Amino acid sequence: ILILTLAMLMWTPLPMPNSLANLNLSILFILAISSLTVYTILGSGWASNSKYALIGSLRAVAQTISYEVSLALIILSSIFLAGGFSLTAFNSAQQQMWLILPIWPMTLMWYVSTLAETNRAPFDLTEGESELVSGFNVEYAGGPFALFFLAEYANILLMNSLSTILFLGASSLNNLELTALLMIKTSILSLCFLW
């Protein structure tokens, strides 16, 4: 339940077009909450009372922590171009040109880091079939298993929404609403992500 709560809590500062919580440091809020998910993964692997789940959770924690550093550094470099820590500053900074054009190498590194952060292929080391069965959630079935995967896919959609806001500019196009344009771009990114 805690991992899904944290996954849903990260959606609050996203401007779609109005955010639920208009924070001045919304990017730091998202980074802080995403760092807290490490504790839920470690706790769930330990609480399942299985060696396989514990080893899978330790691998997931090590991978998540290592790629959060690269995500934070990439976000920091894009904050310099946007001129602020709020996500609405990114929308106003990209009125003339999307940030994907001047910092396309950072965008590629961001894409690879988000793949690793959300445990998608080829970075799904936590679910190594031959060694670890199914990762840290091997002992969970039914409701808890569904909550883990709801949280995982909520994080995937959040990372793609954040990628759209940071690099693809969620500005208006031909009187199309901001939310619709943001969701179209996010859906295209999610298709590439899950392919």
Automatic annotation (TrEMBL):
The gene is ND1. Keywords: Electron transport, Membrane, Mitochondrion, NAD, Respiratory chain, Transmembrane, Transmembrane helix, Transport, Ubiquinone. The keyword Membrane applies. This is NADH-ubiquinone oxidoreductase chain 1. It is found in: Membrane; Mitochondrion inner membrane. InterPro entries: NADH_UbQ_OxRdtase_su1/FPO (IPR001694), NADH_UbQ_OxRdtase_su1_CS (IPR018086). One of its GO terms (biological process) is aerobic respiration. Belongs to the complex I subunit 1 family.
